Amino acid sequence: DGGITQSPKYLFRKEGQNVTLSCEQNLNHDAMYWYRQDPGQGLRLIYYSQIVNDFQKGDIAEGYSVSREKKESFPLTVTSAQKNPTAFYLCASSPWGGQTNNIQYFGAGTRLSVL
Amino acid sequence: AQSVTQLGSHVSVSEGALVLLRCNYSSSVPPYLFWYVQYPNQGLQLLLKYTTGATLVKGINGFEAEFKKSETSFHLTKPSAHMSDAAEYFCAVSDRERSNYKLTFGKGTLLTVNP
Q1: A91 vs A4, A56, B2, B41, B64, CA distance in Å?
Q2: What is the structure's pLDDT at A48?
Q3: What is the mean pLDDT of the segment spanning B90-96?
Q4: For chain B, counts of helices (H) and of strands (E)
Q5: B-interface mutation test, from A27, A47, A56, A104, most B Cβ less than 10 A away
Q6: Do A42 and B100 touch (CB under 8 A)?
Q7: What are the φ and ψ backbone dihedral angles of B87, each rounded to 5 degrees?
Q8: How distant, in Å, are the alpha carbons of A8, B14, B21, B54 from that of B18?
Q9: What pLDDT sits at residue B27?
């Protein structure tokens, strides 16, 4: 089945710890995205990547880092600098091709909590 | 910058009643418009999108939306609500003129369907 796989489903972070959320897609999409979802806030863009080895900051990148070494993978690291990391994190991908009307496809999300 | 306003963070309807979820955007140039649905603890799924052409767009699960440029609106409707429609709905826009594909989401409307 083609799709986007996020793991783990639930993650707990201790004070001062970095944690990494995994996102893998087998849709052969060029573009990948990370969003943060808080209750009543909608989705806010953290980082996005339109091509391997390139990525751009979104609206709330502080305290987060990403890499895009492979087309299929776009891991997100929540660093200790992110003081309020508790949220639902969603990864998405789309067939970029230079078009802005492409649909984004979403994974099932990772819920991150602070211990 | 683009912005999206969803009027009503919570809408409650009876089973069989009309569903109307409101979405307005702010842009001098009509953007591309999307409606997504999110079931509890899941990712987002596309319901429908408007790019060009016919202003009444039909989507999955009996939903449709009408793009009204004069009102800068893209309201989502369904003639008869079903219990399975209970979910959170997000309106999103992307800018036609920018070279980077970014979706801006509204804050969401939670739809409750009462038996």
Answers
A1: 8, 15, 21, 14, 26
A2: 93
A3: 86
A4: 0, 12
A5: A104
A6: no
A7: -175, 180
A8: 38, 8, 10, 22
A9: 78
